[in-house]
Prior knowledge:
The chain is an all-alpha fold. It is 79% helix and 0% strand. The longest helix has 28 residues, at 177-204.
Amino acid sequence: MKKYLNYLIKGIFAGVMIGIGGTIYLSLDNKMVGSFLFSIGLLMICMYNMNLYTGKIGYIVVNKKSYLIELLLTLIGNFIGTYILAFCMLSSRFSSIGDKAKVICEMKLNDNLISILILSCLCGVLMYIAVNNYKKHSTSIGKYMGIFMCVMVFILSGFEHSVANMFYFSVASMLSWNSLLYLFVMVMGNSIGAILISLYDNKINK
């Protein structure tokens, strides 16, 4: 039971970190700088061994079936964490970021689900590469560069990160059945992208 609670708590903390990254991004007008600083969220998650769904789903390829429980609790924790951070921001002097988030969320909801799925798959690929590079690279510069480059690319390209979008929909006060459907498709897309690149990394590239 303690093990499962740890999965959930680590997921909540990771969601908070992504929310902090999202807050930084929404607070700045310069997208290049915002995307660079957003990376602090994933960096802290990797450094402090937190559980981020998009960073863990690819490893389903090399884990047992019981890993599914960890993934599910991680995803739930990520949602809780992003919601908590969104609630905190809306209760602070940073509440104006909700208006910026609303513009972003409306753009996403006006897109079609096939497009969302494709963009989410590409984000999933980048997230696996970022996390896997952090795990395997022997130098600090190599570890950090992988994270910052992959995060900047997915943000500036407009790819869809399901956990980041949990924060955006929450802080925009736009959680609904429709936005949850879009989040579900984003989760599926992130999963497909991460699993495909993981299959290449662990099964083909040997």
